[in-house]
Backbone:
């Protein structure tokens, strides 16, 4: 049925959300901005600068574009330090086995992530070179819910969007898949929004879905 599967990275292949949270928390604390896990949930799949704009909803001063860039870069420095804690052990057995089984079925596999750190994260997980294509924050102009990141992934794979299945944990990502005319499976936090084609209780549920 499908020829390719495009995976979101954070929240699907791995769980870097706690590192994003810790890094943003540090910046928010420095600026005296209220920030909690609930606000952090709104940052899923959203680009770095857009994430900071959401955090700044609780900032009652004014901030220039230069300052915004400065703090977003500061967050990224903290985040990248935290990512160094990641290793191939952070890749679950289930994800590893499911990816291998999908590949055996002849499906192409790609990453469709908003993150500019996708390459580094894949390296930490021991997945460098594993995917047939990587579309991430470095090759897009518009971030999720715009479909660009997934459409580029399909293009890199030389597949039509309609032949690709997207797997996402974020509302912005599920909306992006829809906007790109792609079927999508929601996992984790993504299951709370009912716009997905499929609901995945487990990552390995993908194996049944691709059987059609
Ligand atoms: C991820 C995260 C977002 C993050 C974004 C940009 O997206 O879910 O919270 O803001 O990447 O990350 P960076 O600052 O590393 O460029 P995805 O699409 O992989 O879930
Ligand atoms: Mg995600």
Residues:
């Amino acid at each position: 049925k499908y020829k390719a599967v495009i995976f979101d990275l954070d929240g699907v292949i791995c769980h870097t959300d706690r590192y994003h949270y810790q890094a943003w928390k540090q910046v928010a604390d420095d600026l005296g901005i209220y920030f909690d896990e609930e606000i952090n949930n709104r940052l899923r799949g959203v680009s770095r600068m857009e994430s900071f704009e959401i955090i700044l909803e609780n900032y009652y001063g004014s901030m220039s574009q230069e300052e915004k860039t400065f703090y977003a870069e500061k967050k990224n420095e903290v985040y990248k330090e935290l990512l160094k804690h990641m290793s191939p052990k952070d890749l679950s057995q289930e994800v590893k086995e499911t990816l291998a089984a999908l590949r055996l079925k002849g499906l192409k596999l790609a990453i469709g992530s908003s993150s500019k750190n996708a390459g580094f994260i894949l390296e930490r997980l021991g997945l460098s070179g594993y995917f047939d294509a990587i579309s991430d924050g470095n090759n897009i102009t518009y971030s999720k819910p715009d479909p660009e990141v997934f459409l580029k992934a399909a293009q890199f794979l030389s597949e039509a969007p309609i032949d690709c299945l997207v797997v996402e944990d974020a509302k912005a990502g599920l909306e992006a898949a829809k906007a790109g005319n792609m079927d999508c499976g929601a996992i984790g936090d993504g299951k709370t929004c009912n716009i997905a084609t499929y609901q995945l209780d487990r990552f390995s549920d993908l194996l049944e879905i691709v059987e059609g």
